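so im writing up the methods section and need the Histidine kinase record in one place, dumping it here so i stop losing it
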Amino acid sequence: MFTSDVDARRPAGLWARLAHPAAYRWYPGAAIGLLYQISVLGGLWASDGTLGIKILATVLLAVVYAAFLALPPVLWWEGERLRIAGVAAYFVLTLVLVPFIGIAACWTWVYVACVAGMVIARFAVATGIILGLGALQLIVFVVAGTFEDDWYIALITVSIGIMMSAFARQIDALRRLRNAQGEIARLAVVEERARFSRDMHDVLGHSLTVVTVKSELARRLIPVDPARAEEELADIERLTRSALADLRAAVAGYREMSLSTELAAAQAGLAAADIQAHLPRNGEEVAPDLRELFGWVLREGVTNVIRHSRSRNCWVTVGPDSLEIEDDGRGPVAVGEAPVGAAGVERHGSGIAGLSARAQASGATVSVTAGPRGGTLLTVRRAV
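--- predicted struct ---
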């Protein structure tokens, strides 16, 4: 388990580390690993040493065993250098046993190998330390003349040490996977909120703009043409019902955008705003995978023309991989020069930001520039 570089919730003190949930998961297995040391303790108390030596050696062994339990939870939260230093200090601690139990002290090096495997993040370094411990054990056994009887201890040290190192990496990989899954879930929530925000802007912005324009028109027509005013009010009712349905669909996340439907809606909205519409009959020439995107762009672009441009004409041109919306109004307004709600603020604000996000998902780009007719040109294009 290698947490120092990725886990910001580092326990503040020694006892907090020893009481960490990860530490409690370590203790049972580590305690089971200490059981085979019963033979070392049995050999110690069966030896010819004095009672004082036996008691002192038992205390030192207890310290070595306690260090084996405590070191990994303490070192997991430190940097690599301090971890290596901790392993080295633990090895030195085992050497203190040599005057009391002799060559049997080598049996405790398997715990040094386990600690190295569990705390050192770089596999090559951990493996090097483990192999070094095994080689040192073999040298000691050769010098002491017990190689034929004790060589297997080195094999146990190396095999268990490398096994613990691999186990630690598996635990670390699982922890990183859980962290990644948590981050993916968080990003999914963020993306869903962004989608909802874009849909609310695109759905309600257009509908409310057209409703506002038609309401103003109906109010002016009531004294002079009540029948026409009634038609406009009926359109307003239809638009509000449609907007409510779109809102429900957007909340559910299943709203479908149709380019042909948006062309018809653009025609009606521009007419209500007394803007001459120059629109294609349909969008059949548009690539199928771009029609939904172009529908959103058309809705946002026409909404901005109605709301901000002060134009008399609006031209919409579509191609297999592009869509252009142009007006002959006052042109793009710099954000710093525009009042709140003006064209520049809107076109470079949440509306265009939302369209850019949608376009990017389809491999397209959105741009807002001054048009050749003196107004604003909104272009969405996918590179072929």
